Backbone:
C-alpha cells in the first residue's frame, strides 16, 4: 500500500455522507439508511484490499457501486413489505424551523417518489449529477458508461422528472 | 473541472428550473446524516469491523482507544441524542446554529477516542444539524445492556419484523463479547446463522462465533469453524484475526 493511498478509516470519514445520501436517493427508506450504510462499509472493508490494487479506481465510483447493490436489496424488501411511503414521519410543526423542516421532508418525499419511477441506470445518473453535483465525466466513470450515454440517460431522467412534477402540479391545481 | 459554456448545468444551478422541482432537489441535495447519526453509525460499524479498522493511520497503534468503553458510550449517547431529536421533531437541515451543533457533537461523543472525534469532527461539517436541546440529555448507564442500535429518531417501525436485523444480531454478539458473556455472543451468532445463513455479514458472524467458542474453552470447535471459514472465504480481511484467535492457520 503506497503512502498516498487512503486508509479505510480515511475513506470512511471522507465518503460517509456521500454514501448515506446515495443510499437515500437510490431508494433506501430513512429508517433503514443507517443499517444500509453499515452494510455498505462492511462490504467495502472486506473488499478494500481489492480496491486498492486497482490503481485508477475511483473511490466514489467503487463505493457507489456497492451502495447501489445494497439499495437494490432494500428496495426489494420494501416492495415486498409495502413500506415504501410514510417513510420520513411528518411531525406536528410548532415553530418556524419545524415548519421549514416539514416542507423539506415533503419536498424530499416528493422527489423520492418520482425517482422510484425511474429505472436504476437513469436514477443513478440523475442522483450523481443533479444531487451529488459531480461533473458528467466522473458520473460516466462511476456508472461505467461512455459520457454520451450518461448524457442521454440524464436527459431521459430529466424528462420523466419534469413530467411527474407537471402532473403533480396539475393535480394540485384541480383540487 | 472547469465548466465549458456548452456543458450541461445541474438543474439546481439553472434559474429556469420550476420552483417545486428546485425545492425538492435542494432539499435532497442538503440531506445527509446528522452528527448524532454519524456517531451512531461509526460506533456500530466500529463494532462490526476488526478492531482499529476505523482508527486513522496516525492513531492505528493506539487502536485500543477505540475500545469497548468509548464505543459503548458513543452508542448510548448516540441513541439518547437520536431519541431526543425524534421527540423534538426530527432533524432540521441547515439551521446553522453553531451552539446547538457543537453541543450536539459533544453530547454524542462524551468519552470518545481521539480517533472517533477526529472522524466525527471531519464529518460534522456536513450541512445538516440536528436539533437537540443542549447537552443535558441523560446518558444511559454504561453498565446496563445497551439497546440495539437500529432505528431511533424516526417513526416507529410499522410492522414488527419477526427476526431482528442482521446488524442487530451482530451488535448483540459484539456487545456480549465485550461484556465477557461468550455464551450470549455464541447464541446471537447462531441465531444469525439460522436467520441469515448466507447473509451480508456471514463472515462477521463467524468471527463472533469463533471468538465466543475460544472464550468458552471450546477450542476444537473453534478450530474446526476457523478451518471452514478459511475454505469459505479465502483472502478474507478477518483471516488474521481468526488465526490469532485459534493460534495460527
Residues:
Amino acid at each position: 500500500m503506497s503512502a498516498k493511498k487512503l486508509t479505510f478509516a480515511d475513506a470512511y470519514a471522507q465518503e460517509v455522507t456521500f454514501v448515506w445520501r446515495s443510499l437515500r436517493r437510490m431508494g433506501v427508506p430513512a429508517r433503514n439508511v443507517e443499517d444500509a450504510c453499515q452494510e455498505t462499509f462492511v462490504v467495502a472493508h472486506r473488499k478494500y484490499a481489492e480496491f486498492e490494487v486497482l490503481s485508477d479506481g475511483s473511490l466514489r465510483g467503487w463505493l457507489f457501486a456497492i451502495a447501489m447493490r445494497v439499495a437494490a436489496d432494500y428496495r426489494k424488501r420494501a416492495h415486498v413489505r409495502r413500506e415504501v411511503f410514510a417513510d420520513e414521519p411528518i411531525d406536528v410543526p410548532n415553530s418556524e424551523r419545524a415548519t421549514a423542516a416539514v416542507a423539506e421532508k415533503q419536498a424530499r418525499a416528493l422527489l423520492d417518489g418520482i425517482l422510484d419511477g425511474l429505472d436504476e441506470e437513469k436514477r443513478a445518473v440523475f442522483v450523481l449529477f443533479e444531487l451529488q453535483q459531480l461533473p458528467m465525466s466522473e458520473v460516466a466513470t462511476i456508472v461505467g458508461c461512455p459520457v454520451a450515454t450518461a448524457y442521454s440517460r440524464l436527459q431521459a431522467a430529466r424528462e420523466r422528472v419534469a413530467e411527474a412534477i407537471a402532473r403533480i402540479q396539475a393535480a394540485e391545481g384541480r383540487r | 473541472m472547469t465548466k465549458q459554456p456548452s456543458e450541461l448545468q445541474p438543474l439546481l444551478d439553472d434559474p429556469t428550473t420550476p420552483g417545486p422541482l428546485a425545492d425538492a432537489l435542494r432539499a435532497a441535495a442538503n440531506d445527509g446524516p446528522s452528527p448524532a447519526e454519524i456517531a451512531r453509525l461509526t460506533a456500530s460499524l466500529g463494532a462490526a469491523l476488526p478492531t482499529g479498522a476505523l482508527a486513522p493511520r496516525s492513531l492505528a497503534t493506539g487502536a485500543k482507544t477505540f475500545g469497548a468503553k468509548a464505543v459503548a458510550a458513543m452508542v448510548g449517547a448516540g441513541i439518547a441524542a437520536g431519541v431526543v431529536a425524534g421527540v423534538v421533531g426530527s432533524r432540521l437541515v441547515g439551521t446553522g446554529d453553531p451552539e446547538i451543533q457543537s453541543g450536539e457533537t459533544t453530547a454524542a461523543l462524551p468519552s470518545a477516542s481521539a480517533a472517533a472525534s477526529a472522524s466525527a469532527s471531519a464529518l460534522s461539517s456536513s450541512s445538516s444539524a440536528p436539533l437537540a436541546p443542549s447537552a443535558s440529555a441523560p446518558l444511559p448507564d454504561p453498565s446496563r445492556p445497551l439497546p440495539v442500535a437500529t432505528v431511533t429518531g424516526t417513526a416507529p417501525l410499522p410492522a414488527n419484523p419477526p427476526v431482528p436485523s442482521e446488524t442487530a444480531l451482530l451488535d448483540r454478539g459484539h456487545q456480549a463479547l465485550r461484556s465477557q458473556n461468550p455464551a450470549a455472543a455464541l447464541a446471537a451468532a447462531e441465531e444469525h446463522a439460522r436467520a441469515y445463513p448466507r447473509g451480508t455479514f456471514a463472515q462477521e458472524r463467524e468471527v463472533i462465533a469463533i471468538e465466543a467458542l475460544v472464550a468458552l474453552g471450546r477450542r476444537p470447535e473453534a478450530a474446526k469453524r476457523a478451518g471452514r471459514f478459511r475454505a469459505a472465504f479465502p483472502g478474507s480481511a478477518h483471516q488474521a484475526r481468526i488465526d490469532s484467535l485459534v493460534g495460527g492457520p
Summary: The longest helix of chain A spans residues 147-174. Residues 96-175 of chain A form a domain with the Arc Repressor Mutant, subunit A fold (CATH 1.10.10.10).
